[in-house]
Every structure is written in structure tokens, then in C-alpha cells.
Design a protein that fits this description.
The complex is a heterotrimer of chains A (289), B (240) and C (295). Chain A is mainly α and 289 residues long. Chain A has one domain. Helices cover 75% and strands 3% of the residues of chain A. In chain A, the strands form 2 sheets. A two-stranded antiparallel ribbon of chain A has the order 1-4. Chain A has a two-stranded antiparallel sheet with strand order 2-3. In chain A, helix 1 packs antiparallel against helix 8, helix 3 runs antiparallel to helix 4 and helix 9 packs across helix 10. Chain B is an alpha/beta fold and 240 residues long. Chain B has a domain of 162 residues: P-loop containing nucleotide triphosphate hydrolases (Rossmann fold, 3-Layer(aba) Sandwich). Chain B contains 9 helices and 10 strands. In chain B, helix 7 links the parallel strand 7 and strand 8. The longest helix of chain B has 16 residues. Chain C has one domain. Chain C is 73% helix and 3% strand. Chain C is globular and about 60 Å long. In chain C, strand 2 and strand 3 form a beta hairpin. With 295 residues, chain C is mainly alpha-helical. In chain C, strands 1-2-3 form a 3-stranded antiparallel beta sheet, with helices on one face. Classes of the chains: A mainly alpha (289), B alpha/beta (240), C mainly alpha (295). At the A-C interface, helix 4, helix 9 and helix 11 of A face helix 4, helix 10 and helix 12 of C.
Amino acid sequence: MTDFVQNSLDGITLGASYALLALGFTLIFGVLRRANLSYGPAIMFGAYLATWTSLNFPAALFVLFLVTVAGAVLAGSYVERLCFAPHRKGSAVAAMVASFALWMQFEELAVLALPKHLYAFPALYDGGPLSFGPFFLRLESLLMLLAAVSICFLLWKILHATRFGIAVRAVIDDPTAAELSGINIGAISLRVFALASAIGGLTGFLIISSQEQVTPMLGMWSTLKGMLAMMLGGLGSLPGAVAGGLALGLLEAHSQWYFGPQWRDFIAYLLLFVLLAMRPPWMNTRSAY
Amino acid sequence: MAAEPLLRISEVVTAYGKIEALKGVSLDVAQGSITCLLGPNGAGKTTLMMTVAGVLKPKSGSIRFSEEEISSLPPHAIVSRGIALVPENRLVFPSMTVLENLRAGAYQRKNDFQEDIARVFARFPRLKERSAQQGGTLSGGEQQMLAVARALMSRPKLLLMDEPSLGLAPLVVEEIFHIVAELHREGSTIFLVEQNAHMALKVAQHFYLIEQGRVTFSGNPGSLAEDEVIRRAYLGSAQS
Amino acid sequence: MDEYAIGVLTNIGLFSFIAASAYLLLVAGELSFGQQAFFGVGAYAAGICTAMLGWPLPLAALAAMALGALAAALVGLPTLRLRGLYFAMATLAAAEMLRILFELFHWQLEIGGETVGPDGTQGFRGIRWVFERGVEPADFLALVWALLAVVAIAIHLIEKSRLGATVRALGEDPELAGMLGIDVLRLKLGVAAAAGALAALGGALFAHHNTYIEPRNFDIMLGVHSLAYALIGGLGTVFGPLLGVALDLGLLEGTRFFQGYRMIVFGGLVALLLIWRPRGLLDERVVHWLKTRFS
């Protein structure tokens, strides 16, 4: 029983990071109807920028946070301009393959700038895990949870209480009607990309400072988890992204405990495959790409 | 020298890939008028509306609004010039409330739309009742009213309407055209595309017939026998 | 020809199989992130057949192709009615599951005093059938390209036939195809199986060229690369994906001009090229122009 609760705790905090990644990924998908394969790599760019900064300057943790977010937003905007803006009315496959091409660029850039496979990153918190009776919770995990809740709330506020948010929701609901209402889809797309990349950067920073390390695998890993969580929760829906992320985290934590890391991943993919094959109604939120 | 009409469409050709849906359409919409475009399904009515609204780009030809060439502008620029389209099938935002739909329509007016909301609610009391209801749950007639209201939020100089009567009960259709006439009385210019020739002819000052991508008739209601118009609006002419 | 050039050309040949595999599905209107799985199935199957069961390579290659087709059909059956990203994610999930299974697969035999066989993440060594028979790298290169030529010409002939036109029409407008009475699902399944067999053949040859394979060879990177090769080479003809592979592995990597930053150059080139030509260099328009020019 203790194990079950502990694993569930771990699963929820892991799920919080997945939910954040899924949120950013889903924002882009909802507005552009396309998958951005460079989502994770843009986060990795920010993470590497911050790592390089920490290796060359005595920077405070908060500064590194800003650098990560700024790097992710910069990289994200680059991807949007080169891969998604030119194909807005055109081929979805071309946009996605182009985003893969930029992923290649980011990975090689990272390896060139910081050639080692693993780099240390300043810790978010130096102390040990907090204990609640028989259960342990790392402060970093709590922070991740807090971040997820805050971002959800912030996002909800932006989408429901601002003019920008109305425009974003309009584009998600019906891009043609949005255009006809005078909304500049190109401008909204770029801003959504920046917002999603910023959320990604925040998440990336929390991940690397919790794990106290950075690897070039962060890029692909983030994209995969974001996409997986988004699909599990129902393509293109923001609440679904959060639910999908939490579900994935819980699934992974329990699977890993009982079956080990390889089966953990296998089970997640199997679940996705089966869900897709069965196409339950709550997965049918968005069309095609 | 007469001033150019508010909207002047000249020899517009719009194609989907290789298929030309509009084969050289020319027509004028005079300031302050209700102008109607009638024609059967597939004649190109919606294609023309979407072309004027900027969603589709013409292969050739010109579209001039207030003496400015607008055919190459993106849709949001056309809205800012003062044209708003009430699209075929309404296209309300299904997951957004009535109020949010209106706010979306007022997007370009930034945060200065309270007056317009009040006016729109006065004109469409049913929408006011349902202001917190999601667009997707409204009835067909209510969605049509919402679509019109949303378009009005941008304070357009020219209102385009694509088949406002489509799929609506006769009583509701009458209500919609009542609103159209009311808007006209208040000074709006309306360019209306319809298959329901009977209702359209009751309000229009001028009408055109479009068949297979070309304008085949231009005149005032009464210049062609109504049953002839209705026949051609639903079926097209005997000869192509 | 020097050994390096032979190596580059062989790689171009080998990866052309999987690029063509991704191409076939793209033409049929489906985006697959998972062709690398069938490449892997072919590699492991052929390796087991020659190194552990003592079969000759031709037989092993046929077995690999059959297994590749079967695996592709099994993956495709429940998923081909999905479109767009749904199908892409399903293929990704299937491919990753297969890769994890390769990581967990241990089967080793004592042959001639050596331990041979797949050893999970440690990989599968000793696939030496080709080199044990004194086949020179240049000969193997010829074999790979001969097979590729046969396959490419066969596909090219099919493309020119009614079947090819039907598949292309299916890709462009599946609703219309369905209305015209085409059994969309069966046709797509056929294409998927053929693509699986094609990738598996490439994998079989790959295993025998490298003599050592590991699950990491068959990860997402390979899959997305193949997709990119197919798309930039062009979707108008089966020679498109071959061109795509040649551009990256031949021009960029082979020339060693851009040593160390080849991916940055290739990535940028792909993104820019796709803006100008969203369906690749040899897209349908260019192919049509070439046909009218040279007929």
C-alpha cells in the first residue's frame, strides 16, 4: 500500500511535467493543426544556452531560468517562421518534415556547443526530499506540481479573459471563421508559438535543475512525452493535455515499479496504440493533422 | 461623373486547382443598397463571397472597395477596410459563448465594443437571453442571428451575407430578412447571396443571376418575371 | 574505387530501401513515423536466418521480406483507417514497441564455438554470411544496387499503370476514391505490406553489410530521416526518395565538406527546399514535365 501511494505521488509529479509539455505541444497543435517536431528541441536549445551560461558565468539560478525561457522562445519562433508560417495554407506534411529538419539542426548545434554527453546543471534545491510519514516528496517535484497548476490557471486566464485569448480560442474552434472575424492568423500563430515555447522553457528549466543535469536527449524526449500525453488525453484539447500528462505519469510510475523501465515505455506505447486503434469518442476532438 | 460603386467586381476568376469556379464575374454593389446574387448550387456564389472576403485569392480580375483594390489583401485586412462576411453555414464558434463569439467579431475594435454589444443585444433579444450559452448549442435560427451579430460587431461598411436562409424554417427566414431590411433602413450596404429568390427579391434594389461561374443577368426586381428568376435561381437556364 | 566511396554508395543504396518504403505510404496519403521497425524486423530476421539457421542469404532475404510485410499488415490493419497525425502516432507507437522488444530479445546459440544471436541491448553480432563467402565490398555494393534497381524499376512500372494511378488518386482524395468504389482500406493495406517488405529487404542487406546490428539502429531518427528523404527527393516518382538519400548521404556526408555540422546544413536545406517545393524536387509537376519532354 505504501508503495502504491508513493508511486502514485511520484507519478503525479512526473505527470505534472508531462502535462506542462503536453500543454505547450497542444497549444501549437490546436492553433496550427500540425505537430511541431521541434518542440522539444527548442526547449533543449534553451536548456543548453542556460548550461553554457552556467559554465561560463557565475549566474544565479533565476538568471538561468530566464535564459532557458528566452532560448526556447527564440528557437520556437525560428521554427514557426521557417516551418509553419510558409506552409499555413499548404502541406501539413511539409511543415512537419521541415520541423524535423530543424530538430536535426538543434541537436547538432547542441552537440557542437557542448560536446559531452552529460553536463551538470545547478540544483534547484540542495536539500533532501521532504517526508510525510512513510512517504517522500522532493521539493523539486512539489515545485513542478505548483508550476503545472499555476500555468494551467494562467493559461485559463489568458484564454478566457484576454483579447488575445479570445482570438486563440477562435482560431482553435474555426480558423476560417476567425479569419472572417478579422483575426490575423499568422500573427496569432507566432504569439502562440512563443507562449508554448515559454511554457516549454519553464518546464525544461525545472526538469534540468531538478535532475541537475542536461543531455542532448532532452529534445526528443520532451517532444515524445508531449505528443504521447496529448494523444492520450484527446488530440488538441487543453484539459485533455493535462489529463493525458497526469495519466501518463501515473502509468509510467506504476509500470516502472512492477515491470522495469523498458516495459514501462512499452506499456505507454501499447496503451496509445490500442486507444488509437479503438478510437474512443473522447479522442476525436480534432481533425487529421 | 457618377462615383464608383462601393464594391466593384471586375472579371474575377477564382480557381480550385485547375477547376475554375468563377469564370470572369463582374458586378457592382451600390452604396446604401441591398444587392442580391441569385443562383443555383455550385454556381459560384460562395466562392465569390469567399474571394471578396479574402479567404480565396482570385487568379485574375479586380475587386475594388471604396475605390481601393483589395483582391490581394488577407482576410483580416479586408475586415479592417470595413467588409464583414456572414458565412454560409454560419460558422459560429461552437465552443465559445454567444458573448465570446461577439467579442471575437469585435477583435479589431480592441477593447471598445461594449456599445456594439448593447446595440446587437437590442436588435437580437434572443441572443441576449442566451449570452452565456455555447454557440454550438444554439438552434439554426439563433446561430444565424449570432453570425449576423458577430459580423456587425466590426461595424462594417459593407455586409456580405452568404445564404442566410439556408436550412431555416420559413418563419425564421422572415425574421432574418426583416433584420436585413432594418439594417438597410439604417444605412448599411448589404450584398446578399441567396438561393431563396422569393425572399431576396422582396428586399433587394438590384439583383444579379449567376450560373456556372458567370453573371447571366443584371436588373431590378420586376425586370424579369419572378417565376423566371426563381426557376433560374434554383435550376439555372436551359442552355449553359 | 576507394573503400570510403564504396561505403558511402552502399549506404545510399541501403537507406534508399527504407526511404522508398516511406515514400510508398506518402503517395497513398499516409504519414508513417514507423518504417524503421520493418527495417529492423528485416535485419533481425535475415540475421537469424543466415547466422543461426544456416540459410543462404537469398532465402533469408525472402523470409525477411515476408515478415516485414506481415508485420506491416498487422500494424496497418487496426490503424489504416486513421488519418493524418493519428496514423503517424500509431506507427510511432508500434515502431517503439518493436524496438523495445528487440531490446528485450535474447536468443543465442553456440555455433562453431562462438555465441551467436540477438542479445538485447548488446545487439546481434556475427552476421557474417556475406564476408565468409569472400564477397568483396565492391561486389556487395553491386548486389545492393542491383536489387535496388530491380525494385525501383518494378515500382516505376506499377506507378505508370492503373494500379499506380489509383494509389496516387487515393492519396490525393480518399473520399473521392471511396465514392468511386475503390476499396480504400484494402488498397492501403496492400501498399503498407509492400512498404514493409521493401524496408525489410533493406534491413536484411543492412544487417549483412554491417555484420552487427542493435536496437538503437532502428529508432525514431531513422524513421523520420526516411520520411525527410522521401519528401525532399520528391513524391512524383520512386526515384525521388533515392535522390533524397543521395543528397544527404552522398553529397553532404560523403563529400565530408560539412564535417561536424552536416546536419545543420542538411536541416536548413530541407526546411528551405520545402518552402519552395513542398512536395520535393521530383514532385508530380516536374515528373509530368519530364515525361512530356522526353516522350
